[in-house]
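Researcher: For the record, we're logging two predictions in this thread. I'll number them. Prediction 1 follows.
Model: Prediction 1, sequence and structure:
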Amino acid sequence: MSRYHIDWSGLIGRDLVQELATVAGVDTPLGIEDVRPLLTRILAATGGWPYTDALPSSRQTHDHIRRLLGEAFAHVLGGGAAAPGYRLQATPDDTHAIEAVPRMEINIAGRDELALLPELTPSRARAIVAERERGGPFRGIDDLHARLPRLGKQRAAALARVVSFRVDPPAAGATGDWRRDLAALIAQEPAGGARDRLLAALERVARIVAADRHPHLRHRLPRSFKAPARPRSHTAAEATVLAGRRYYYYVRDALRAAERSIDVMMFHIAMPRHEHPTRQLLDALVQAHRRGVRVRVLVDRDRRDDPYRSQVINAAAVQYLLANGIAVRVDRPDRLLHSKLIVVDGSQTIAGSHNWSAGSFFMFDDLSVAVHSAEVAQEARKRFDTLWRRGERAKSGRGTARRG
């Protein structure tokens, strides 16, 4: 199969430049070379790995370019991207190597999440959350250190490289129409004529998306030139909102009542002690397996440089399930399995933000939904089956897996 490299610069035509000029209200001629470098930077950071299996048609190219620009404009209007996080590692020649890492929102993250940062111990993570609840969100690293002086200046400086301090939610200014969103970005520019404000807006978009490149580009995945299909809607006999701890008891009862099949796809399944609340859910899976229910469990497996510690967090639960005959697989380490999905008997789907952890069950403001619909369950199971086939069979022994 042939592979074609996409030249983003070559796909920028005069028709697009004229559309930009019209949106910006530029009444003097706008040359293609005036905006091509900026648009190329935006598309290169938004468009994914620049390879495709087939050459697109002119109509597909037209629609794809505008869809990508719309994504970039909406990204900026939705609050922009924080500067990427990083850690410094010493090298033999007494310099430092930079390791890029995702930033964690310190004013939103829970204790368990903060404790995953190498810069923090569990006790310091608890202290941060307690002070945040007492005195409100932290305004920056200086405010954090002033309120928690025991962190120390050196640790605070290291922490500043891997966290962000968002206080208010991002502005929800995007409309989904790339022309209207571009006009909104231009209106945010404080000075200059129509042409200068257009160029300033495009420069700002290029700078922000370059700092937070699209995941398809980071993971070297191409993006299709075809427009994504609209999600299909399905009818449901019943939908139940599961806020907070209600999720735990609902899931436990659903697993105990299962008659034919249970598929669990989970980012984190934490069971640090056998008396941990997750044990009841795992026992429900084991009991279902023993009465003839088909049980499959798929969990995240992170890379060595990921901060999520999925292999460590999931290890005890995986070994417990394997010891009791449950089929367990781990996903590919180059992909982050962040789903929290359960499908029971091909008729009930439970999905949302709950991990299987004490924090999600009883402390965090997690929210999930249980949907009674064979159609929804069928769609969810298709997704599960796809990722299950890509995964590797977990093997007895901490942190190991084999193809299967």
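Researcher: Logged. Prediction 2.
Model: Prediction 2, sequence and structure:
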Amino acid sequence: MEFPKVFPAQSQPRRPGLEYLMVPQPIFDRPERARSDRLQNKVAVITGGDSGIGRAIAVAYAKEGADVVIVYLDEHRDAAVTKEHVERYGRRCLLIAGDIGYESVCQAVVKQAVQAFGRIDILVNNAGTMPPFEKGDLMPAEDTERLFRTNIFSMIFLTKAALPHLRSGSSIINTASIVAYIGYPNLVEYSASKGAVVSFTRALSLTLVERGIRVNGVAPGPVWTPLIPPAWPKEEVPTFGQTTPMRRAGQPVEIAPAYVFLASDDASYMTGQMLHVNGGMQVGG
């Protein structure tokens, strides 16, 4: 499959961005790939599952036999498309809209998921936001708090709410970023929030290992998702991702297999780890 290396200049006025407005549309599925039923009859809760990497994870999990709960903010049109593709693979999909930066919303999400499916086997803490890429001072306090609520508080709140329903063999997977390891100029707070995700993953894995619950993460490099058009300078979008050794941005469909692996029994001897899917960028840790 050929993946685009150059994107048209574009921007979006709101955050999070909307996938249906992106040109070209992110690639989130490879229908020709055979199913292997590695997640047969499991139930997965995926935050930020309406679009981008989250959509690709949801579709990949459905192909592997899982029912899916998609949690998103308010991108209803994108979420409906994800639900359609999950159901196309014969699996059930529950859509839940809400701001998971608040603990009460996370508690409600878990309650609805358990009421609908009776269990939770996999929790994917994937939702995230990125501030506009602007040179200058650090962000105002209220914007920093908003960023951390979405990027790390939500993971803590949702994990806390889900833990009473997770059993031995369950899996928690957190989305970090390459910027947690290399930093990024003018994205100081975003880099810090993703660094917190890495530390949260490592500490939580040690806390839950005796319960048989595995906790891992994925640290993607530059990926063509709805985070990019609202945040990246319009004139730099055409070359987005070209600083990687592969000289292009990744597509969500290329990231999702890491989440399938970590959720499956194939990763039964892995916990507290980060998978780096980043186009060849070398990082430590």
